[in-house]
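To assess whether the prediction recovers the assembly geometry, we first specified each molecular entity separately, as shown.
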Amino acid sequence: MANRIISEEFQIIKNKYGEKIPNSYGYSLRIRRMKTLWGTNSLRTKKITINFNLIFAPIEDIEYVIIHEFCHCAVRNHSKVFYSYQQMFCPEYKARKADLNKNIHPFVVKIEAINSAI
Ligand SMILES: [Zn+2]
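The predicted structure of the complete assembly is given in tokenized form:
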């Protein structure tokens, strides 16, 4: 199954950084197609939701999105403190974000358009 890549990456990151990220204990993963977000973090249900369409992205980008969402366990907003967490666990986060926006997002939009035309 294609989303096994996302599941495995989620486990790797959880094992690697879980203890270093406050409030991340007990989080589980959900994978679904989303139109406008690569990922979300629900504090209430302790679930990180990852966009299924990330299977079209390189593993480094998938890793970046999962780390980003895990960092939201510690800091809800996109403040300086949040970015210091992200910097610590994913130093190349700016390049990953740029790749998602410039390359992967347009590709996913194309795929979705083809799927809805069939
Ligand atoms: Zn965020």
